[in-house]
Specification:
354 residues, alpha/beta, Aspartate Aminotransferase, domain 1, Aspartate Aminotransferase, domain 2, 2 domains, seven-stranded mixed sheet, four-stranded antiparallel sheet, 13 helices, 15 strands, 18% strand
Length: 354
């Protein structure tokens, strides 16, 4: 039998190339929740008393949706649980894609660049015409910027992905801009994975737009604020028609049994989320102050991380004790540093700030 060659659309990193750093350095490169206090609470209050039935039995999705509605204060029938915000992005992009719609009309996917890598991957797989809008950097103003006018050219067949805050630059897209993009008639997905660490009114006002714009969906994740990146737990919020559309493509069980149990745990411990946000904000401030004293140039950002202009003299000593995330924009080099709680910051930087 003649072998049919595989059509490759995107190049993906294979699991065999994944390496785990064994140096003992602090992991400040992946934007995981590094709050030691939250880790201790999860261990003692959630994991130790966990009933083994959540592993043996199939997931209790009714419990999960009711718990999520309680946590978010949003209607359960307008929520879709997903395996992390990644699967929320996948569900959204597939639902509005040329592949799903089965027509010959070209559909643009417009997004800032750089951003979450899976946006481009799913965009290619689902047949979108990709339009990446590059960030630029103004050194004198210490800020990233992007030409948002291209977002406003999108029409009903197009899709806009807006990460707010973005996971490299920490850029927030103001509600006024989001509303103007929605008014243009295109499909819009706002990624609020880091919104808990931004100014509180931004997240709530953008969520309110869902009631006014049927073309708007929002995704959030518990990887950052909930401290469970390894659990892969997120959700989509939109109007009921959109949620029903996304529901067609869901797996039989949206999330695992242990994820369902964790949502039930959080529903009765919502103050835990506010507490870890406060701790991480304090840790971020400590990192910023310490490195600025060393001469590092801070780029103001939102998120559970701090962003600086790269400076080898300043950051090489820090790399000896912590893993950092370098990136480039506009031909310039930057460093992103995930913020742990303030106590952990002091432990990591002990001796470095002497």
């Amino acid at each position: 039998m003649r072998e049919i060659p595989m059509r490759r659309i995107v190049a993906r990193t294979h699991w065999t190339t994944q390496t785990i750093d064994g140096s003992g350095r602090a992991g400040l490169d992946r934007n995981e929740n590094c709050d030691r206090g939250l880790r201790q609470i999860i261990t003692e209050k959630f994991l130790r008393p966990l009933d083994v039935d959540v592993l043996i039995r199939y997931p209790d999705l009714r419990l999960a949706y009711l718990s999520l509605a309680k946590i978010t204060q949003l209607p359960a029938d307008r929520l879709l649980l997903t395996s992390g915000s990644e699967q929320a992005i996948r569900s959204f992009l597939y639902a509005h894609s040329p592949l799903k719609m089965g027509d010959s009309h070209q559909r643009r996917l417009v997004y800032p660049d750089p951003t979450y890598a899976m946006v481009q991957v799913y965009g290619r797989l689902f047949g979108y015409e990709l339009q990446a809008l590059p960030y630029s950097y103004c050194h004198s103003e210490r800020r990233f910027s992007i030409d948002t006018s291209a977002f406003l050219t999108c029409r009903d067949r197009d899709v806009v992905y807006l990460p707010s805050p973005d996971n490299l630059t920490g850029t927030v897209y103001e509600t006024e801009l989001v509303e103007r993009i929605c008014a243009a008639g295109c499909r819009v997905l706002i990624d609020h994975a880091y919104i808990d660490f931004a100014a509180p009114p931004i997240g709530s006002t953008q969520v309110e737009l869902v009631d006014r714009y049927p073309n708007l969906s929002i995704t959030r994740s518990f990887s950052k604020v909930g401290g469970v990146a390894g659990m892969r737990l997120g959700y989509l919020y939109s109007n009921s028609d959109n949620i029903n559309r996304y529901y067609e493509d869901k797996p039989m069980y949206e999330i695992s049994g242990i994820s369902c149990a964790y949502l039930a745990f959080l529903a009765d411990a919502k103050a835990l989320l506010d507490g870890t946000v406060s701790e991480i904000r304090a840790g971020k401030l400590e990192i910023e102050k310490c490195l600025q004293r060393k001469g590092a140039i801070l780029v103001p950002s939102f998120g559970n991380f701090a962003v600086f202009e790269e400076n080898d003299e300043i950051f090489e000593p820090l790399r000896a004790v912590a893993l950092l995330r370098p990136f480039e924009i506009d031909g310039k080099r930057f460093i992103r540093v995930t913020a742990p709680d303030s106590g952990s910051v002091r432990s990591i930087l002990e001796g470095y700030d002497d």
